[in-house]
Amino acid sequence: MARTADSQPTTAAGVPALVPHGRFKGKPAMPLGRPVTIVGARNRSHLHLVSPSVSKSHAMIVNAGGGFYVRDLASRTHVHVNGQRVREAELREGDILGVGAFTFRFTDGAGGPARRPAAAPVPAVLRIGGRNLPHPIVGRSMLIGRRPTCDLALEELDVSTTHAVIFQMSGKWFLRDLGSRTGTFVNGTAVHQQPLELGDHVKVGELEMTLVAASEAGAAGLEELEDLAGTAPLAGDEPLDLIF
């Protein structure tokens, strides 16, 4: 990779990227050319970071259409943006992203001018079989898994620690399996990642749930969902390894 006179890694004009920062300064930049980039210690991660401080599936970076955001995948050591622990946060030009012992400077490839954000999808909730209240999707994503810090924490043994994530991208809801042992299903079909439509049936382990418009929750349900949201905890891809 070409270097500037002061030995800083360069990226192609117009290409968003994570540029190694701190003690890893000078290492090759990681282009963010995929719609979704998984960061973690698992060797199938798009950004493969080998360190005890990095969880197998540590974070997800989403090109939401008009901007990027990062989502912590219930990692052990958390995700930080500009030194602040975040559950989910927008990434702006020059932000410093911390993943375990690694830090990166985010560049949007456009030199900082504001991009027009994509329209948000219809606000939605998950209606879960056997439960009276639907489960809210707080912010732009919902992490499903067995780890207690997941947004939807399940106790079933056939559910992986971090099993799947529902998230917003380009004005739509999407579902992505996070390398679970037993798979994630939409309308009876195993999926890796695909758009979700209102009314779609999702199965994780033995739990079945349906994505519905938040307006269908009813007035009483919406009030309780708002209370839940206010107390929410902070917490076809080919892999491209970048091992430091």
TrEMBL record:
Residues 1-20 are annotated as: Disordered. SUPFAM superfamilies: SMAD/FHA domain. Residues 30-86, 142-191 form the FHA domain. Residues 1-11 have a biased composition (Polar residues). This is FHA domain-containing protein. It comes from uncultured Phycisphaerae bacterium.
